[in-house]
Amino acid sequence: MRPQTRTRNHRIYVHRDRVGVFFIGLGHQHPGNPNHPPEGLSGAETSSSIDRDKSVLQTSFMTQPLPALKPEQTLLLEKLTCDYARYAHRCAGLGSVLGGVFAFLILAVDLLGHHGRLTILGAYAPLPMTPVLLLTILPFLWLAARHGLRVWWYQRFGLVEEVPADSVEPQERRRRLALIVVFPLVSAAALTTIYLNEVLLKPLRATVFLLLIGAAIFALRSLLLGRLDRALGVLLFLCPALLVTGIQMAAMDSLAALPLVGTFAIVLGLKEHLAFRRLERQLLALRSGS
Amino acid sequence: MSRQLDKPLRTILELDRMVHEPARLAILTVLASAGSVEFKFLEMVTGLSKGNLNSHATKLETAEYLEVIKTFRGKIPVTSFRITTRGKQALTGYWRQMNQVGGKG
After folding, report:
1. Is residue B8 packed enough to be buried (19+ CB in 10 Å), middle (13-18) or exposed (0-12)?
2. Residue A121 has what pLDDT?
3. Which range has the worst mean pLDDT, A45-49, A276-280, B51-55, B94-98?
4. For residue A71, which residues of chain B lie inside 8 Å, CB to CB?
5. Residues of chain A falling short of pLDDT 70
6. Per-chain mean pLDDT for chain B
7. Which residue, among B33, B70, B99, would best test binding to A if mutated, counting the most A CBs under 10 Å from its CB?
8. Which terminus of chain B has fewer CB atoms gathered within 10 Å of its CB, N or C?
9. Which strands make up the sheet holding A2-6, listed edge to edge?
10. Tally of domains within chain A
11. What is the CATH number of the domain that holds B40?
12. Between chains, do B38 and A66 touch, taking CB under 8 Å as contact?
């Protein structure tokens, strides 16, 4: 540490980690103003005391540099950042809970629309227009709510994106592809069923069907990156799409899948949310310096 | 004996000062753990003031250890940072050197 500049009552030092000002005087630095001479002494008195006694009587830092970072502190920073970044896309927390609730809601609309009657899977039993519109809105409402929660709650300390993977693993790529391929296949099956039932699909219903399928493919490709989100995305878009066409879903598969995935999403979402609350407390503690 | 001492000493002297400074080390550590990080988050986790953070970020940008991304969210300007390959290498090299000094390397 070597003095660079010396003035009447302070010296500026350049150190490896900091640029600090050492105050040379008899008292402590002024609490309100670090550049103020020590309490009870004017600048002239301070310098005269230095003149009387050429030695440095007391030094105090005027800057508060960060202490050196220990490896465990950097590990904590890494961990907190990684955990927080997960909530940018992969973890939805309350968004998943909402998805789970919507899965139950779709099932309820389906059952109520058919007055609680269960028909064979694939049978043609069109729903009235009101449930159809409700079913069309639900998946989009879920996507919007999920996005809102991410922006206003889970990323409110600033957006942190996860480290992009250098390359997508082949297994993951196959899984993504399979999910996207499911939609055209199911669409083809649905249209075949309608054709076999010798029914002409109304233009509005056909448009809504295509809209839901297209939105699902887009959402699965770019918005829903977590596994739970994808499962929810498939169900929340595919079930309403089929129901809109008039294909009966209240059969064994959807009766089992919707509550199963819904319950799973609610439990996992709550778990993620509680984990975020813990992370939030850690981040706030970090900000307050404790 | 003196030769044994020489190596850690030389390693200390060769430390990258740009990375060794605690505030900049904290910034690089956070950036290395994420793809891109907004100014607001960095400010919170490092505990630095806006001015200090800006100053350190500028130094790191000059050294090409990070890149600054300026975007708009609606009408609000948003500043984000992303660590560069050079920054990642510098951080890895720094910890390698620190481990050597600590006798772990």
Report:
1. middle
2. 54
3. A45-49
4. 95, 98
5. 1-71, 113-125, 165-168, 179, 183-184, 186-187, 189-202, 247-255, 287-290
6. 83
7. B33
8. N
9. A2-6, A10-14, A19-23
10. 2
11. 1.10.10.10
12. no
How does the average pLDDT of chain A come out, rounded?
A: 69
Domain of A40, in residue numbers: 2-52
Neighbours of A205 (CB within 10 A): 18
User: What is the signed CA dihedral for B37, B42, B43, B45, rounded to 10 degrees?
Assistant: 140
* Interface predicted TM-score of the whole assembly (ipTM), two decimals: 0.83
Range of the domain at B39: 2-101
Number of domains into which chain B is organized: 1
Q: What is the pLDDT of residue A255?
A: 62
C-beta atoms of B22 and A78 within 8 A: no
Is residue A96 included in any domain, yes or no? yes
Binary contact (B33, A69; C-beta < 8 A): no
Residues A18 and A104 in one domain: no
A248: left (phi over 0), alpha (psi -120 to 50) or beta: beta
